[in-house]
Specification:
- The protein has 184 residues and is of the alpha+beta class.
- The chain has one domain: tt1808, chain A, CATH 3.90.1570.
- Helix content is 23%, strand content 32%.
- The protein has a six-stranded mixed β-sheet, with helices on both faces.
- Strand 9, helix 3 and strand 10 form a beta-alpha-beta unit.
- The longest helix is centred in the N-terminal third of the chain and has 18 residues.
Length: 184
């Protein structure tokens, strides 16, 4: 990545040119480095990805796991690029070879100690502003999943615990077994 300037705002074009081998996100032009996830994070993500993959096989919507660029405001400033842990995209017009342009239907983040504030506060606001229809936050520590479902201009949150089955509002008939996710 080139030398950072405090007063400069970056765009997707800048981001795409960074070839330092690191993972970054841009939030309204400000770069954020992404730390490598912990093993528990990856195990949970692997199980969730498997459940979504099994449900979506042969269906119209598609699931993508990180690293996968989501350009939340590609049609305007193009200065917000995130790499959620998992996304579901049903509008194929939003997909290109580099990722998703616009709001996915569902975004899922598995919390890590290093990403907690960023995922729960900063990215929450970006997902809401972009119109992501469903935003899931999975907390390995408390063994909970908080599903934020877009209701007009705000999210309605529902918390699910380790033994629950969480319905996926953007995928008719899909439920995710949290007993399988939080096995350890």
């Amino acid at each position: 990545m080139p030398l950072m300037h405090e007063d400069k705002r970056y765009t997707y074009a800048d981001y795409a040119a960074w070839d330092d081998g690191e993972r970054w996100e841009l939030i309204e032009g400000i770069p954020f480095a992404l730390a490598a996830p912990l093993r528990a994070h990856q195990r949970i993500l692997f199980d969730l990805t498997g459940q979504f993959y099994n449900f979506l096989r042969g269906k119209h919507c598609e699931a993508y796991a990180a690293p996968f660029d989501v350009r939340l405001n590609a049609d305007t400033d193009d200065d917000t690029v995130v790499q959620p842990d998992l996304v579901i995209v049903c509008d194929h017009a939003k997909l290109d070879d580099k990722g998703c342009q616009g709001a996915p239907d569902l975004v899922l983040e598995v919390l890590s100690p290093s990403s907690l504030r960023h995922d729960v506060l900063v990215k929450y606001q970006q997902y809401l502003k972009a119109g992501v229809r469903e935003y899931w936050v999975v907390d390995p520590e408390s063994k909970t999943l908080t599903a934020h479902v877009l209701d007009g201009v705000r999210y309605i949150a529902t918390v699910y615990e380790a033994g629950d089955a969480a319905p996926v509002h953007v995928l008719d008939g899909c439920t995710i077994s949290l007993a399988d996710v939080f096995t350890q």
